[in-house]
Specification:
single chain; alpha+beta; 5-stranded mixed sheet; binds D-MYO-inositol-1-phosphate
């Protein structure tokens, strides 16, 4: 395993600190509030983001987080944080949530860390240096499995929910369609080969900035629904093994404007 860069080490420390906080919070009593975009927030999303920001302040990069927005330091590199991906699961005591920290430069994800505190699983990757789960390298198998599993996620807007319904209608007979309610962990499952592809619309950059590097380094294509390289100016995301992505582009490409 190649040694982790200082940036990646810092992100792992930040993710594990926040993860320890979430692990405790998960078994406590708390309430969730509805935000203006209809998604949920708890005190633990906010506390975890504060902890991550304090840790990442040791680096010179700007920080964009789900709960506190952009702290612009004029750097071309931006930490992109989801302190608690899967807030609805967390607040309903469904044990599927994670901390997600990516480092973006333009349209590229330079590194990503996703920490699942309940399983103590840390997924991480750095551009050109491979993807790992704890210390184990992740590399997808290029051959298609007989019954391919795909995740479909969407944001909270009505248009995205309708798109999810339409994709399911088109794909459910030929693919095993799943939705775990946490984009970050779904991307990790694709990177380790437990699932074959992931599709979303309306997710925010913080939902997938870290996962983007992890799936790419595990050997997945990461593109839009037309199969073009993904760009930060829209939220149509498709990733997975090349052959499946190619088939999905054929089946749902026309749904992306
Ligand atoms: C949510 C999850 C979910 C996705 C939503 C996100 P949050 O993140 O990633 O899978 O479908 O669009 O908002 O709000 O729990 O951090």
């Amino acid at each position: 395993m190649t040694p982790l860069s200082a940036d990646l080490q810092l992100a792992v420390i930040a993710a594990k600190r926040a993860g320890a906080l979430l692990r405790k919070g998960y078994s406590s009593t708390f309430t969730a509030q509805v935000k203006s975009d209809n998604s949920l927030v708890t005190e633990f999303d906010q506390q975890a983001e504060r902890l991550i920001r304090e840790t990442l302040a040791a680096s010179p990069y700007s920080i964009l987080g789900e709960e506190e927005g952009l702290h612009d330091l004029g750097s071309s590199r931006v930490w992109v944080i989801d302190p608690l991906d899967g807030t609805t699961n967390f607040s309903r005591k469904l044990p599927l949530f994670a901390v997600s920290i990516g480092l973006m430069q333009g349209n590229e994800s330079l590194l990503g860390v996703i920490y699942d505190p309940l399983r103590d699983e840390c997924f991480y990757a750095e551009k050109g240096r491979g993807a790992y789960k704890n210390e184990e390298p992740l590399r997808i198998d290029a051959h298609a499995s007989p019954q391919a599993v795909i995740f479909i996620e969407c944001g909270c807007a009505d248009q995205d929910k309708l798109l999810l319904a339409e994709q399911t209608r088109r794909l459910a007979l030929d693919y095993d369609v799943r939705l775990l309610g946490t984009t970050a962990l779904e991307l990790c499952r694709v990177a380790e080969g437990a699932a074959d592809a992931f599709i979303s619309s309306g997710d925010h950059l913080w939902d997938f900035a870290a996962g983007m590097c992890i799936v790419q380094e595990a050997g997945c294509v990461f593109c839009d629904w037309h199969g073009r390289p993904w760009r930060t100016d829209h939220s149509f995301v498709l990733t997975g093994r090349y052959a499946i992505v190619k088939d999905l582009v054929r089946r749902i490409g026309d749904l992306q404007p």
